[in-house]
Amino acid sequence: MTTHSAATDIGLVVANHGRHCIVETPEGKRLPCTARGKKSEAVVGDRVHWRPTHEGARGAEAGDVDEGVIEKIEPRRNLLYRQDEFKTKSFAANLDLLLIWIAVEPVFSESQLARALIAAESVNLDICIALNKTDLPGAQAQRERLAPYVAMGYTVLEGTLKKDAASWRAQLDSRMAGRATLVLGPSGAGKSTLVNALAPGARAQVGEISQALNSGRHTTTSTLWYWLGERDAEAGNPGFDQRTALIDSPGFQEFGLRQLEPAQLPALMPDIGEHAGDCKFYNCSHLHEPGCGVIAAAKRGQISASRYRIYAELHQELGQSRY
Ligand SMILES: Nc1nc2c(ncn2[C@@H]2O[C@H](COP(=O)(O)OP(=O)(O)OP(=O)(O)O)[C@@H](O)[C@H]2O)c(=O)[nH]1
Ligand SMILES: [Zn+2]
Hints:
This protein has about 325 residues and is α/β, with parallel strands linked by helices. Helices cover about 30% and strands about 25% of the residues. Zinc ion binds next to helix 8. Guanosine-5'-triphosphate (GTP) binds near residues 160, 190 and 193.
């Protein structure tokens, strides 16, 4: 709760673009804020302490305050990175669940799926894989591609937004209730349809927010935080941590994994990790060593060929990015 005797007010970052953020107050008011120091870039999901930009605004009616300065970012439970051709950048914090939204068509990339899972495991996010468009004829083939992920313990849901949106809602509601869920998926899988189904009207806020953030310039890449459900309908105006939220990161291509060491991979890939204790050498890379439990399991088919290939590719990639 905000008390005007405190030095700063608490808020939640619901959108950001560089050092410029939109902060939401516990009362639900949204206002543009700027981070103070160069190094203190807040991201969507950050809990921040902010104060009104203009002297004298404090103590005035809350409605009079129209701009703020972020003084401090609360410690984060987790922080996620996204990667494009040029750089890796943090984009969201304090999330609970990663919903990986893929479809029968366009056929999903297993390598992108594996990367997303590793990123989520590395920050202790709960994970849910969702296969959409099961009304299409290729459904069985894609189900089979996901079988190794079911076998290694991941939750894999399926359905068709087009033919039965209610069933998707029923599957997702209890998993998302009271949590902050990041939804990610390749273009064309139906993510926009999903966001519209779960948060009707939410996309309309986007124009408003991007206008406030960068004076009208179109931002397709900014991450946004949506509340699901009516504020008033929820008991006693619960705090940021108790409400159901959906985080959408349009234009997201790939998770940044460069902060990871190759040796961390087995612990973040359950099927690889399961056999990593069977190796002759304690520091086995599982790429070429004799007596390797992982290689043996891959030969027996207990680790799928594609998963082993993805492991080897990532091992090399993460090894190269060290300097
Ligand atoms: N057959 C079928 N089509 C679906 C289903 N769900 C969504 N679609 C269609 O898939 C197409 C893509 O859906 P969008 O929601 O625009 O997909 P998106 O992932 O947001 O794609 P981008 O906007 O390109 O990022 C649309 O034509 C939808 O009508 C489904 O369950 N089955
Ligand atoms: Zn090994």
